[in-house]
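Researcher: Let's try something more involved. This one mixes different molecule types, so please make sure each is placed in the same coordinate frame as the others.
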Amino acid sequence: MPSDALLQVEALTAHYGPIQALNGISLEVKPGELVAMVGANGAGKTTLLHTLSNVHKSSGGKVIFDGQEITRTAPHKIVQAGICHIPEGRQVFAPLSVEDNLLLGGFTQRKNKAWVEEELAKIYTLFPILKEKRRQAAGTLSGGQQQMLAMGRALLGRPKLLLLDEPSMGLAPLLVAEIFRVVRELNEKGVTILLVEQNAKAALGIADRGYVLETGRVVLSADADELLADEAVQKAYLGH
Amino acid sequence: MFDQILQFLLTGITVGSTYALVGLGFAIIYNASDVVNFSQGEFVMIGGMSAVALSAGDTGLPLWAAAIGAVLITMLVGMALQRFAIAPARGASVVTTIIITIGASIFLRGVALLVWGKDLFALPHFSGEEPIQIGNATILPQSLWVMGGAAALVMGAQYFFNHTTLGKAILACSCNKTAAHLVGINVGIMLLVAYGMSAALGAMAGILVAPITFSSYDTGVMLGLKGFSAAILGGMGNPMGAVAGGLLLGLIESLSAGLISSGYKDAIGFIILLLVLFFRPSGLFGKASVDRV
Ligand SMILES: Nc1ncnc2c1ncn2[C@@H]1O[C@H](COP(=O)(O)OP(=O)(O)OP(=O)(O)O)[C@@H](O)[C@H]1O
Ligand SMILES: [Mg+2]
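Model: All components are placed in one shared frame. Result:
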């Protein structure tokens, strides 16, 4: 089935032992889009992203990226293909310096030194605090700074598609706004983004389209504005 | 008295340099994969024994070529260990992997026994056996090779982990395997590289000391234990700590052998190790364990 989607997921399932965490997820992300996937605690958002990056193996279904099936492609090759993943909880390399973390983000681009250097400079302009702390161990940064580091690290992988897992987790409201502003800005500069979030309001607020995930199933999908206005969504996720 | 102490110090540093290299091998594998590899001593044995085998007889290779060959053989053994014994047990507990590496060490010793029997072997000294006079103490040229070789290898490893992308990628695998996958590092290959490096270090230690200490199929047992002690003395997972721990252990042994009795040197070494672990469980130079979450 030909499609103009950058990412196309068909009936994807995943298990943890006998427990099924994804019950046949289908979704697509078109080039240039910012798509939000919102869902409560335990809905399967992280599992979905882990399965897309193949650090958790799917038990069925298909993932097609940029015209190629990548369902069983090794994780490092998926990054080479252009999917960069900012994991839940930042997952920085704590004992290594901030700059080393960023450079490791550029691991797949390491042959292209000029590009890495240029991109590094861009990231330091985007997040000046990272430049200031570039020699410090990443583990000493605050939560917000680690989130910026994790984002910078993923950008150095030269993403065609950015997977972003709950960037608002554990951050003060002001920082959440700041992070989401950057996400929007990245998208406007042309990076395609799939954002998964519990914070439905903030995520749908910046997204073009949205999906609602419940216990491993997509229960709703629509333009972000429509979802924000939907009564059921408001009740369940927006606290109205 | 002073001359005697000087002599003990020289001996201690020579022995300690070997322990340091074995300890460094432990630290590298531990750092990359959280596995304590009890086959580390066998790498030393295989390095020494293969160098002897490759250089022996009329048709033997020149020493340098035999040394390179021995290092390559040992690297292959190390990588095979990772690929066929450690990798299949992915996700196993620390105790399980320790049992696997102990099993592998027994297996490797058994193979060495079959190939070489129980005989002792020695390599020729690299540059003569004429002792060099330092004050009233003497030192074998080979001891200088051991110290110099160890120093060069330690600096090389230090450079590799602090200044090369590949070295940092290996560290990244150890501190967060999932994140390492997600930045596009081929974690499996990095683990192979770590085992290969560790095996190469062990082999080089074995080759450097083979002219002075002789090798046999079971030389790895004691060296492995000493290297392990060095690594935990210095703080497991801290490569330079392992090196310092190795030198310290060598000095302690040599001084207690000289000043007390050679019968007690191993015991005194292990007692000091236990004391250190009692008072500083993370080792002398170990960072607090929160660093490794
Ligand atoms: N390692 C695991 N082993 C077993 N079950 C797991 C594991 N990880 C997640 N699960 C289960 O899979 C389901 C989906 O979890 P997942 O982490 O993907 O949810 P999530 O939407 O990301 O939640 P959160 O908003 O809390 O991050 C949950 O029921 C969870 O308990
Ligand atoms: Mg999650």
